[in-house]
Write a structure and sequence with these properties.
Blueprint (H helix, E strand, L loop, with lengths): L3 H24 L8 H21 L2 H18 L7 H22 L3 H17 L5 H17 L6 H24 L6 H23 L8 H10 L3 H6 L7 H16 L10 H26 L7 H6 L13 H21 L12 H6 L5 H15 L5 H22 L7 H9 L4 H29 L3 H18 L4 H18 L8 H21 L8 H24 L6 H26 L10 H22 L11 H22 L7 H11 L7 H19 L5 H4 L5
Family: Belongs to the YccS/YhfK family.
Protein name: Membrane protein YccC
InterPro entries: Memb_transporter_dom (IPR049453), YccS_N (IPR032692)
Length: 712
């Protein structure tokens, strides 16, 4: 029996370690790629609206316009593949609606509190649609809390809301009028995917079973999803290389694999290394051309390496390796040709393939999708649903406590809470610490400058615009840096409407600390830990990997009925499940709770086993037979055995039961006795079952003493 004092000590140690890690993460300042022209354009949008309304209207209207332009600019910096003007307008319209409804109810405290709670709940649920939606919705609550404190009538409320929308309209207009590197994000995503393939080819030269992170390919596919308007304007250089890069990955792995590809040593292995080096050079050149919007330039020695050797020469590859080498050469030539098209040409229409699979819905058509996501997450067991409840409780309590304290500016506590809270523990705690530290630094610096110089409204407005520009420029270096810029920005904006330093610093710091503390306490009291759900994520990954294997084996069993789209969709599902597992495992690593049946060591072993299983299926996919190939009854028998064993295995992973792969193993043994035991599906099937056996060993219950060990 475990001593209660020891249990308490272990709990305190895990919390102390988790808090130390989150504090370190929150205060980390990273080197990031800066975009000074984009930051200047965003700051110019704020400067235009603030300057105009400060000159022709009142300071209060200037502050409203500043927040509209500021928040719309922040939305355009988020990682989204939608057009930047659309993001700016969507954020501004949402801010205008929330501000107007807040103005209508601010004179009735109970009604305003009910509206605030409803708005906070919806902001928390917006994370179900996506991180950009969650961030913009959180901003709506924060801006509403600030702007409704400015005195106005109902007509004035409508005026303030319209001015906030106008600020977003100005930001959108500047993006349209002064485009900076059009299609730059899509170019970077595609170039990153090609560069990742190039790095993979280089690593395969020295490690034939090197792992590959599919995230760059997933990002490139997301970037390739276009609205109908974008599809008509996309440069031709961005149209073809992504699909070819997807097809290159299994070919590279198949060529390098010592079982299904080139021999482990000798002239054949040297030839494979030469081809892999040439492939890396070609892919890097194409990535550079796509990123810069220029033609592809290749060195002549690379072109010479890609020449097909004579069949009788010693360096010629044979069998499956030879087929992989020839296919690699063809695909590399296609990649160069696709990326070397005129970069200024546009596409006159949308292909049927894009219409069915890569067409992004417009914003109005996204509403039903968002409603389905909200309905799916509106349950007590959902992390998003629990996050929405946390946000609602914290914002409501923070607003009440802020109003009860004798500091004024009651909105700062709930503003801080809603801006730092995220659906997972690590981000909430790290952002809470970063927000407080950044606020202290920003308020002290800006307040000190106000004390020393006593600036007027126009100078305060100029300093606020400068802080906005610095925030846009340094946003990706760390949340603490962005928080410092935002804190200074708010101090100078309050100076525009006549709020003095003595009215700002004490209340801002105390209420920011209060809001952060409430956010952190809420997650400790009402958590949604990822650690207990790790087995479910692992089971989902096993299920999608198995379905991917079944889709590939179905092509071997019945080549005449092959459906490439089915294999492709199964691969995408497997990638999504792997990504969900990696994100969940990353979040669980920072949580102050002990593992429940899945230790850190078992996590690593199970992850490696399933990654190897996916690689084995990918090797089979690299050698799919043509439609005119003869059917393989043995492949069908192996697929039937795997299909029958898969549901029980998935259930066993979820419920901590032993895995049984004896039936697929017996079917594979029968295939090994077939006339062609060296066939690609036979040897890849061996790799697949070996990986699944490693998964079973990784999830085997540990000895009783070891199971009590703390999570590292």
């Amino acid at each position: 029996m475990v001593c209660p004092a020891l249990t308490l000590k272990l709990t305190l140690m895990t919390w102390a370690r988790a808090l130390r890690d989150t504090v370190r993460a929150g205060l980390t300042v990273e080197r990031a790629k800066l975009e000074p022209l984009v930051a200047l354009r965003g700051a110019a949008g704020v400067a235009v609206v603030v300057g105009v309304f400060l000159a022709v209207a009142t300071p209060a209207l200037a502050v409203s316009s500043a927040f509209g332009a500021f928040a719309s600019g922040v939305a355009t910096f988020q990682r989204s593949w939608r057009p930047r003007p659309v993001l700016a307008l969507a954020a501004a319209c949402g801010l205008g609606v929330s501000t107007f409804t807040g103005y209508l109810t601010i004179s009735r405290p109970l009604l305003f509190d009910a509206l605030l709670a409803a708005w906070a709940f919806l902001a928390g649920m917006a994370w179900a649609v996506g991180p950009v939606s969650g961030m913009v919705a959180s901003q709506m609550v924060a801006v509403m809390l600030f702007t409704v404190t400015l005195p106005t009538t109902v007509l004035g409320a409508l005026e303030h809301a319209g001015i906030i929308v106008l600020g977003g309209l100005v930001q959108a207009a500047l993006i349209v009028l002064f485009p900076i590197r059009p299609w730059g994000r899509q170019r970077d995503a595609l170039a990153d995917a090609l560069a990742a393939e190039a790095d993979y080819a280089r690593r395969l030269r020295h490690d034939p079973t090197a792992p590959f992170d599919p995230q760059p390919l997933m990002d490139a596919r997301s970037a390739a999803e276009l609205t109908p308007r974008q599809a008509r304007r996309r440069p031709a250089q961005l149209a073809g290389p992504r699909g070819l890069a997807e097809r290159l990955r299994p070919v590279l792995a198949s060529l390098a694999d010592p079982v299904l590809g080139a021999p482990p040593d000798g002239p054949g292995r040297d030839r494979a290394r030469e081809l892999l080096a040439a492939a890396a050079t070609v892919l890097d050149a194409v990535a550079h051309a796509v990123r810069r919007g220029r033609p592809v330039r290749l060195p002549p020695e690379t072109m010479a390496a890609l020449d097909v050797p004579e069949p009788g020469t010693e360096t010629a590859l044979r069998g499956a390796a030879g087929r992989s080498a020839l296919r690699l050469m063809v695909l590399l030539a296609d990649v160069v040709e696709a990326a070397d098209e005129p970069v200024t040409s546009t596409r006159p229409g949308i292909t049927e393939e894009e219409r069915r699979h890569l067409l992004r819905p417009s914003v109005p058509r996204l509403v039903p999708v968002g409603l389905r996501a909200l309905r799916r997450e509106a349950r007590p067991s959902s992390a998003i649903g629990r996050h929405a409840v946390r946000v609602t409780a914290v914002v409501t309590v923070g607003h009440a406590l802020g109003g009860a304290l004798p500091f004024g500016h009651a909105y700062w506590a709930p503003m801080t809470s809603v801006m730092v809270m995220r659906p997972d523990f690590a981000q909430t705690y790290s952002r809470g610490v970063a927000r407080f530290v950044g606020t202290v630094v920003g308020v002290l610096l800006a307040g000190g400058l106000v004390i020393l110089t006593h600036p007027g409204p126009y100078v305060c407005a100029g300093l606020a615009v400068l802080c906005v520009g610095l925030m846009y420029l340094l946003m990706r270096t760390g949340y603490s840096v962005a928080s410092a810029c935002i804190a200074a920005y708010v101090v100078f904006l309050l100076g525009v409407v006549g709020e003095g330093w003595s009215q700002t610093v004490q209340s801002r710091l105390v209420l920011t600390l209060l809001g952060g503390a409430l956010a952190l306490a809420a997650y400790a009291v009402f958590p949604a830990w990822e650690t207990p759900r790790l087995r479910d994520r692992l089971a989902d990954w096993l299920d999608t990997n198995g379905r991917y294997a079944l889709a590939v084996l179905a092509v071997y069993a019945r080549p005449g009925e092959r459906r490439p789209r089915r294999v492709r969709e199964a691969l995408l599902d497997a990638r999504a499940a792997r990504r969900a597992w990696e994100e969940a495992a990353g979040r669980a690593r920072h949580e102050p709770v002990r593992h429940r049946g899945l230790s850190r060591r078992a996590e690593r072993a199970a992850e490696a086993a399933l990654a190897t299983a996916g690689r084995a299926v990918m090797l089979m996919e690299a050698h799919l037979p043509g439609r005119d190939a003869p059917p393989s009854p043995d492949a069908g028998a192996f697929a039937d055995a795997l299909r029958a064993a898969l549901p029980a295995a998935v259930r066993a992973v979820r419920h901590r039961e032993p895995l049984d792969w004896s039936a697929p193993r017996a079917a594979l043994a029968a295939r090994q006795a077939a006339p062609d035991p060296e066939a690609v599906p036979v040897r890849a099937g061996e790799l697949l079952l070996d990986a699944l056996d490693e998964l079973a060993a990784a999830l085997r219950p540990a000895p009783r003493g070891r199971d009590r060990a703390r999570r590292p």
